[in-house]
Amino acid sequence: MSYEHLPNEYHVGHIRIRPNIVLAPMVGVTDSIFRRTILSLGGCGLVSSEMTNAASVSPKARARHNQLEFLPEERPITIQLSGNDPDLVANAAKQVEQIGADILDINCGCPSPKVTGGGHGSALLKDLCKMEQLIKAVIAAVQIPVTLKYRAGWDDNSLNYLDTARMAEAAGIKALALHPRTRAQLYTGLADWSRVAEVRQVVSIPVIGSGDVKDAHEALRRLEVYNASGIMIGRGAMENPWLFMQIAQLRRGETPFVPQPADKCEFLVRYLELMRTEIGERMALNKIKQLIGQFGVGLPGAAKLRESVHRSENSDIARAHIEAFFEPYMTTASAAV
Ligand SMILES: Cc1cc2nc3c(=O)[nH]c(=O)nc-3n(C[C@H](O)[C@H](O)[C@H](O)COP(=O)(O)O)c2cc1C
Q: Which atom of ligand 1 approaches the CA of 179 most closely?
């Protein structure tokens, strides 16, 4: 099957995103190291920071976290903010612009009670007037394009993804990313991509779909069937960091790369070592424990690998467990683990 007719880029204001397959923002995951690791494999057109509370963007607060740090090779990059006070988020947006972000994204999708409790994230779906004020204040404060990431609605009785899209476009938002679950769904059930297609019909800005894309064929099928401007991949990138590259290969008519045990082992070890060097032992250990949960999905014996990495007291032990897990497969080059 040929995919050559499918669009391969979209624009966020003046910024061209090519290819139109992008990394989703994920708290605790999409830090600079993860983003660079994904970009190094190829096929990813845009990366995003983790969601950052607008209240923690001041230089003093920034000294305590590294969520806004990025390197030039990560460009174009989106920095995502959460908040619900228009002045506070607008001020934070100015600082994000000064730091050099290419795109500023407003989070109206996070379902976590810690976030919605403060009126941030998906709580804004319950008050579109408030969301509009916030969007307008942010857009007035910065020159860089502003985008919106959101869910289909608070629950099935208050689906407002079309109203939100129309309001956001009229307020000056340059692209939308829709995770078409409701807040009430959290991560259960399936993302209903027909909603992405519906949003495409009511606005003329790009509409990126987010949710449940785990496979290259499936990604391109969604571009086609739901007419999405782009595809955003979150958990699929933790499970299979080669997914972006595989999509690019499939689009060119090539057979997608099948990572072998040696590739998987090398990926995990390289990622762990990079983290040890850049963010230290404790954080590296926590993050490899987090990644292994998703990365292991579908691997025979993955539960054992997960368990042993989770039990590891330091990253040397974690690395040894990873190498020991893959070792028996190393000699059989064609066996895909
Ligand atoms: C661990 C984790 C952290 C997430 N953090 C964020 C975030 O910081 N900002 C955001 O807009 N969405 C966040 N999401 C939602 C994802 O960006 C994405 O919309 C959702 O997971 C559905 O896509 P997927 O099935 O490809 O993962 C997060 C999801 C996960 C699993």
A: 19
